[in-house]
Design goal:
Aspartate Aminotransferase, domain 2; alpha/beta; globular; 3-stranded antiparallel beta sheet; single chain; 39% helix
Length: 368
């Protein structure tokens, strides 16, 4: 069958390839998939069940339920971002699809850090636009100076992802201020992906560039913090004209986010995540302290990922060796134009993390 030419610009996700491989392995040490190890909270489940029983099973308006949109707007207003409008999306992935589709024409450019979340690059390529990468190795800090050097007359937006997937870095307020100044100077939109904002190992929520730069599009959701990965609830907050265009596009694509899940989201937004955050901080410490003597690794400050440098400098080869030893990790080349690192998700049981560290460190020693 003849497929559209643009389909050749994307590849099956490397993460999904590892996930599929895991299904064929016996009791693998799975450090690959970024999915919380806890289930959806009981009050959220009950709210969803009640919504279904109450007949909340039909389409909602495209933009999402008014009460949910107002609640999201109020949450961000308390953080200093007074968005002009809010759209409930089908996960943050849905928000990325919508925003890229309405912002980018073929040949346009969008700036992102390298390493980057895997979806950014492929969605941009699919549209026919150009991802422009800012190298953040070795410390993964996103430099405003490098961003400015990457700007051309074709640049449409800058992507900020903090807490970051795949590095676990959280950008400091001074870094965000510098990026905001560059964006303002060149009149650029900032798309800030904040899906991991509650998993920040400092105080409170992670800093958001939207609190200091009004011309921002915030993308966030409940897949990670509330473990609602399969429920597909995200939200987008930003300029009115942009949100309207995204809403119009959603009408002819996703239609709306799941109706019962929107009702449950009202409860999920009020859940106290202190215990979950403390649990993931402990997991971070297990992985970081376990690896740092045998790997070159930057300590994560948020999310639940770490991106060690592979012994020998070839992440693809090291991942194959790890898989041969029943440990599933993801090649750094999935998230980067380089292949020097590999990604670990520590969103798993503590016992599995300890086992994974033991095997990975043993493999690292074989390179000495």
């Amino acid at each position: 069958m003849r497929l559209a030419e643009r389909t050749g610009k994307i590849d099956s996700s490397g993460i999904r390839k590892v996930f599929n491989l895991a299904q064929k392995m016996t009791d693998p040490i799975d450090l690959s998939i970024g999915q919380p190890d806890f289930d959806v909270y009981e009050p959220v489940k009950e709210a969803a069940i009640q919504a279904i029983r109450d007949g909340c099973n039909k389409y909602t308006v495209t933009a999402g339920n008014t009460e949910l949109r107002e609640k999201i707007a109020a949450i961000y207003a308390a953080r200093g971002f007074h968005a002009e409008d809010v759209l409930v999306t089908s996960g943050v992935s849905g928000g990325l699809v919508l925003s890229f589709q309405v912002l980018l024409d073929p040949g346009d450019e969008i700036i992102m850090s390298d390493p980057y979340f895997v979806m950014y690059k492929h969605l941009v390529n699919f549209i026919g636009a150009k991802p422009v990468f800012v190298d953040t190795y070795p410390d993964f800090r996103y430099s405003a100076e490098k961003i400015e050097q990457a700007i051309t007359d074709k640049t449409r937006a800058i992507i900020v992802n903090s807490p970051n997937n795949p590095t676990g870095l959280v950008y400091r307020m001074e870094d965000l201020n510098a990026i905001a100044r560059v964006a303002e100077k060149h009149n650029l939109l900032v798309i800030t992906d904040e899906i991991y904002d509650a998993f920040y190992y400092g105080h409170g929520l992670a800093p958001t560039i939207a609190s200091i730069y009004p011309h921002s599009l915030v993308l966030c959701g409940l897949s990670k913090t509330a473990a609602m990965t399969g429920w597909r609830i995200g939200f987008a907050l930003g300029p009115k004209d942009l949100i309207k265009a995204m809403t119009d596009y959603q009408q002819y694509s996703f239609v709306c986010a799941p109706s019962f899940a929107q009702k449950a989201a009202m409860v999920a937004l009020d859940i106290d995540l202190t215990e979950a955050r403390q649990s993931y901080q402990k997991k971070r410490d297990i992985i970081y302290e376990g690896l740092r003597r045998d790997f070159e690794v930057v300590r994560p400050e948020g999310a639940f990922y770490i991106l060690p440098k592979a012994p020998g400098g070839d992440g693809d080869a090291f991942v194959l060796k790890a898989i041969e030893n029943n440990v599933l990790v993801v090649p750094g080349s999935v998230f980067s134009e380089k292949k020097t690192h590999f990604r670990i998700s520590y969103a798993g049981k503590d016992e599995m993390l300890h086992r994974g560290v033991e095997v990975l460190c043993r493999l690292a020693k074989e390179y000495r």
